[in-house]
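Researcher: Please generate the 3D structure of the following complex. Treat every line as part of one assembly.
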Amino acid sequence: MTPEELKGLLLVSSIKIGVVFAVIMIGVIMIIWVERRGSALLQDRLGPNRVGPLGLLQNVADGLKNFTKEEVMPLQADPVIFVMAPMMSFVAAMLLFAVVPFAAPLPPFDVTLPLIGHVVHEGPVAMVIANLPVGFLFILAVSSIAVYGIVLAGWSSNSKYAFLGALRASAQMISYEIPLAMSLVVVLLLAGNVPLGDIIAFQQQTTWFVFAATLSWLLFHVATFAETNRMPFDLAEAEAELVAGFHTEYSSMKFAMFFIAEYTGLITMSALIATLFFGGWDIPFTTWDEQEATNWSFGTLFRVGMTNLFFIGKTFFFAWVYIWVRWTVPRFRFDQVMHLGWKILLPISLGYIVVMASAVLVLERLGMVHDWKYGMALFAVNVPLVALCVFGLDRDRLLLGARLRSQAET
Amino acid sequence: MAITVKVMKRPEHEVSYLRATLKGLALTFSHLLRPSVTMQYPEQTATDDWTLSPRWRGTHRMLTDEQGRSKCVACGLCPQICPANCIKLVPGEDEQGNRYPLIYEIDEFRCVFCGYCQEVCPEEAIHVGVHYENAEYERGRFVYDLERLCAQTHPVSTLWDPSDPKGQ
Ligand code: SF4
Ligand code: SF4
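Model: Done. Output below.
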């Protein structure tokens, strides 16, 4: 790598990091606003509407408030871990976004800039902070780090509520990590590789994986609810039972860090669902967005902008689904959560891997090329599977209602 | 499983998770489209279907006669009946033998707004009012003296139906 290329790489990376960080922070503020206003609308209220137009600046005001509030450190708390825990949550949530591509690639460049001089970037500039070869494995690894933040927070506060919250979080998040990873095995089987860029490219070639791996999407979606600690699986902070769960003892900006981490996780998980199952920045029914970016024309920039808009739109849609579900479904009981995770999601995802692996093998043997027909063939496999699962779950066959379970026991 | 659960007998369509969840989602979504019922409080203090009840018992008000003196004759009934013991009354007498309150104070912080003082007052002097915006910056300001009680202008509470005072 020549010094010019190194400079180009550093320049591009730092710009991307800065922009993504800023956009996520603004996105978090926006999503919290949407959550508050949206929940208000769902409950026939208005929500915060005083600070700024439509209450948009309410969260900025709340952030400032959190900065100026007194920081309470419990006497019995472990000071080092107590301070580190919110950082761990926050960093783990932010790190996830590093591998999510958010637009079509920009063309290569070769320019001379003031101050830094001649910079070169060979090949298209991928619109992702780190185009890691390990792809979503990185996501699985880092998202399990997030649980350390919660567990350590609960443990170090030396409070029984926080500790109970932490215990629940560890049990719950570890058990949902498994169906989460298992549902992604199918994506790996289809796309044949783990980097998210390759997965998007494969979806552009065939169909979105929501068709090719519908059940996978359903499992992943349910598991991410538990992974982001949101209703109906927010047992770690169950307000009704545990005061505020793992962050009971936290105040001021340390509490706000957990809050931001939670919503960053929400955005990231929505972005992941959009990327893994809904084509990422792909614009449906068109191919013009998939052309190789070669020159800095207006068309290229417009294309990048449009793909980015589509990505943001999809992410926002799934974030809204999270919010919508949160204000609809009440919290599960803890044994129900464990039951759902271990006895329902895990067997379904394992069985699904077997079925999809066979289906992929059959299609390969038939010599099908990877185009939309390939995706539709897989969709045809998926429809009866989904129907079967829905039927099984709905008729109390797998997920016994309390009534049927008591009948079965007596 | 160690947890014992009280099991309700419910029809199958109610215990089905998926249908119930989808129904719930549809229900909450339908609420998105409904108008909100929020009253924009400081600007708006009443809506079409809600106003403060005329029987609302809020900030006290002492009524005055034509000369602007308080109607209170310092009979001592209201401090006697007050369950919160928050009325302070020191009676005085002028040259004509008319009793009047030398000191009359109500601690609005201790008051439970039961309205007994208004009910018991033989002169219809002290009243609870249809008024609630009595926030202050200092605790001391919540002790209303006679002058302040007389200076209140809000409507007084109607504790009984004027056409049927005995409640028959
Ligand atoms: S309203 Fe009740 S509590 Fe308040 S001052 Fe009158 S009698 Fe006392
Ligand atoms: S009951 Fe009425 S007249 Fe008697 S002391 Fe109280 S306010 Fe005065």
